[in-house]
Amino acid sequence: MISFKIKVFALFLCCVAGYSYISSLSQDIALSINQQSYQANYFIEGSQTKRFTVEGKLESILNAKTLEHYEDIHVTLFEKPHITFFSQKENSGWIIHAEEGILNHDNNMILLEQQVTLISSRSQDPIQSLKTSTLDLNYDTMIAHSSERVNLIGQNLTLSGTGLFADLEEEHIYLQQEIQGVYENK
Question: pTM for this structure?
Answer without folding.
Answer: 0.74
